Amino acid sequence: MQSSLLNAATYQDQNAFLELEFRSGAIYRYLAVPTQMFQQLLRAESKGGYFNQHIRNRYAFIKIAHAHSGVRFRPDSGC
Q: CB within 8 A of 79, min separation 6: which ones?
């Protein structure tokens, strides 16, 4: 992904989860995000700008991994 803020973005359509991996290594799962928001994020010229304007502080989220921890915690994995 071409972005100075984001490393990767994935979307689970069934659950409306948007999972974002930041350049810092932190991973967040945003809840109840419409499919169109994910599609628009991918098409945005500035991914970071789109995130800051349309996603950040607008959707509930769960922190999945800490920055540079090397460990990914998945709440639904039973860990």
A: 73
pLDDT at position 12 over 80: yes
Mapped to the 3 state alphabet, what secondary structure does 6-36 carry? EEEEEEECCCCEEEEEECCCCEEEECCCCHH
Q: pTM score > 0.70 for this model? A: yes
The closest of 20, 25, 30 to 59, measured between CA atoms, is: 30
For tokens 């509930």, name the residue.
60
Residue where the block lists tokens 């809840």: 31
CA atoms within 13 A on the CB side of 24: 9
